[in-house]
């Protein structure tokens, strides 16, 4: 299936590692020009260059703390000057605050909210502003995809209260924004991933793989590209009649 993404410009926050890297890679495979946002990954530039070399697309590793308004605005300016106007955004950047609620400090809580919720808001707001300006000039509407989590519906027993709250908030934000911008043709959807193989949790999975596999009705943990493929479909015009939707890619953990 041709996803009609060739020469479109897509911003992926947290796009140089983990799920974000897989999303960026599949977008590049489909011919999209990709802006890989990063804040702490020293390999971001190398990842961007590798995708450009492999798939012949334009890429850009662009630094920005998505919780900071001025850095988000600057990021969009850099992308537009080097890759062209942004056609779509994937809000993937997130952090996890692990302590149980009773042990969670206010600073840890606020940082989790700042990146996961405030960051999603700031990037989405800037995307909407840019897309609406383009639409007024006769351009096509775009797409926003927000990465949530199955924990938004199920919660956690491992001390992720702040994280789960922010991921649930993303679902409410997705629906609300989708209603606001539907008349402009801009689509906003969310993805609900389950447990994935990433470097962050690799050591825990390797220590007790059966424990993690049992959590999924499918009996295994997802590879990041399985989530990424669904995300890229939502970015594309092939999902042109979908907005305000939450797509469950949790291996049956959420059953939503």
Distinctive features:
256 residues, alpha/beta, Rossmann fold, globular
Task: Provide the fold topology.
Elements: E1 9-12, H1 18-29, E2 33-38, H2 44-55, E3 59-63, H3 69-82, E4 88-91, H4 106-136, E5 143-147, H5 151-154, H6 161-181, E6 187-193, H7 199-207, H8 209-213, H9 224-235, E7 246-249
Parallel strand pairs: 1-2, 1-4, 2-3, 4-5, 5-6, 6-7
Helix pairs in contact: 1-2, 1-9, 3-4, 4-6
Question: How would you briefly describe this protein structure?
Answer:
This protein has 256 residues and is an alpha/beta fold. It has helices spanning 18-29, 44-55, 69-82, 106-136, 151-154, 161-181, 199-207, 209-213, 224-235; strands at 9-12, 33-38, 59-63, 88-91, 143-147, 187-193, 246-249.
Helix and strand pattern: EHEHEHEHEHHEHHHE
- 3D shape: globular
**Strand element count:** 7
Q: Span between N and C termini?
A: 26 Å
Poorly predicted spans? none
Provide the CATH architecture. Answer: 3-Layer(aba) Sandwich
Average predicted local confidence, pLDDT: 94
Number of domains: 1
Number of helical segments?
9
Helix content percent band: 40-55%
Strand content: 5-15%
Any overview of this molecule?
47% of the residues lie in helices and 14% in strands. It contains nine helices and seven strands; from the N terminus they run E-H-E-H-E-H-E-H-E-H-H-E-H-H-H-E. The two termini are 26 Å apart. It has helices at 18-29, 44-55, 69-82, 106-136, 151-154, 161-181, 199-207, 209-213, 224-235, and strands at residues 9-12, 33-38, 59-63, 88-91, 143-147, 187-193, 246-249. Helix 1 links the parallel strand 1 (9-12) and strand 2 (33-38). The chain has a single domain, classed as Rossmann fold (3-Layer(aba) Sandwich).
